[in-house]
Amino acid sequence: MKQRQWQGWGPGEQAEQQHYLVQPRALAGGGDIRHVSEFLRASGWRDKSKTCGPLLMESPDRTVRVAYDPYILPGGWTIHGRTGAKGEWSAHLGLQTPVEIVAGLTDALTRPRSAHAPSVWEPLQEQNWHTRFADQNYTATSPDGAAWMQYRQDADGSAMWWTGAKDEEGNGWTAHFTPNTPMHLVQAFSTELAGPDPVMRPRGRVPHSAQIRTWSVSVKPSQLSAWQQARITAARAATWARSSTRGTRPRTTARPHTPTGGARTRR
């Protein structure tokens, strides 16, 4: 474990909380689910959760639901959506899926789809993941061998996206997506899965694994709050911008026709 001085406040301020930067992020453990839920709430999603019950968030157009339930087996995240031509799709992510990786998918639900054709494999290849094709399965594996992303197709024709991460002791998580899950969402997930940056976990929430690297960092509670608020503020700003754009679109109603030669009144 390495000690790292966290830069971010002025001289004389005293750090009050011990946290750890964890790498690789895929083995960092679940984290605080508010990283996902507060961003969705700031993006205009409705909180449909029952008191003391599992988390349930619904999109403004009611076509997508994001749920987190730690009280059932195997528990974890369920994202369920409806699309026009392709019908329903769903994604199921285990309890220990890092919230930063979950947010890759859920944040993308709040944004307009890019005009560029999505590629699930491109973000992985950019981070030097190893890819191979065998038995109708296309698989990408992280350089350290801990995480994977696979499109698998069985002999009966059924297919799905399967992904996850495990250390040498078998601790970790798995997730799967139905094959009709919108590709740009799967790409957003794979981008965060392969992200090289470490994620932060508080003391006592760092998994015990020989395959992770950690750096001790000291941060002020106000600093943590500011980072969280910056993410929420960004979500609100993007939501406001989209609403403003919709509200200021030019009208498509044709103007009244003025006959040729007719009198016009100047103002």
TrEMBL record:
InterPro entries: DUF317_SPDY (IPR005523). Signal peptide: none annotated. It holds the Pfam family SPDY. Residues 238-267 are annotated as: Disordered. Residues 58-114, 141-199 form the DUF317 domain. It comes from the Bacteria. Residues 238-247, 255-267 have a biased composition (Low complexity). This is DUF317 domain-containing protein. The lineage of its organism: Bacteria, Bacillati, Actinomycetota, Actinomycetes, Kitasatosporales.
